[in-house]
Write a structure and sequence with these properties.
Two copies of one chain form a homodimer. Chain A is an alpha+beta fold and 123 residues long. Chain A is 51% helix and 12% strand.
């Protein structure tokens, strides 16, 4: 017979285990890259301006003047959005046309909303 | 009688007007600031780890080790998330506890999904 009792572990007391699997490092890296592409005021406005046009497509000639930026600066931002898979670029005649990639912003938003409290975890 | 015909205007042909009002510069600046806070792999993982815990709240003592980063680095990232209004910080005893601000990620996601093609504009 022993009189020894279990000592409460302070580590256990402070540290509840997660109730579900958190995001992996790989997923976080990919998602951060796409979020960086839109985490810029000019690029957000460009996306919004393209979305506001008929068929969610706009000529580059429509996008430069409202921003008050030079053509090379606007072209740089548009390229970042194309590289991030958020816009497509289509050269027709002398002008380039940019269109929203259907569902791209939706899928980004869906990842954010999936980072909610685990089911049944509400207080 | 005249043989002159109307020349097609290339300006008009290239430039369709927007079908709705695009995002203002002020809104874009505020949104970009919040997106910057989450456009980082470590901060995305921290948000996800907090969300994965019961009641969407986790002790800082649970967050450092899985990331393999130093405590000051993790604290810096947590502070950015608190400043962006995505996490709350509550000191209880020796540990700080971080909780998701209810609806904060949802409202961020909602702004993204609202940047979709104008109604009836689908091809």
């Amino acid at each position: 017979m022993t009189t020894r009792t279990e000592l409460p572990s302070t580590e256990v007391a402070c540290c509840a285990p997660p109730t579900r699997e958190p995001m992996t490092a790989e997923t976080a890296a990919v998602l951060a890259q796409r979020l960086k592409a839109i985490a810029d005021p000019t690029r957000l406005r460009l996306l919004s301006m393209v979305a506001a046009h008929e068929n969610a497509e706009a000529c580059v000639c429509d996008l430069t003047e409202p921003l008050g930026l030079t053509q090379p600066t606007v072209s740089h931002h548009l390229r970042v959005l194309v590289d991030a898979g958020l816009l497509t670029r289509d050269k027709r005649g002398v002008w380039a046309y940019f269109a929203l990639v259907p569902g791209a912003l939706d899928s980004l938003a869906a990842v954010l909303t999936s980072q909610q409290p685990a089911e049944g975890a509400a207080v």
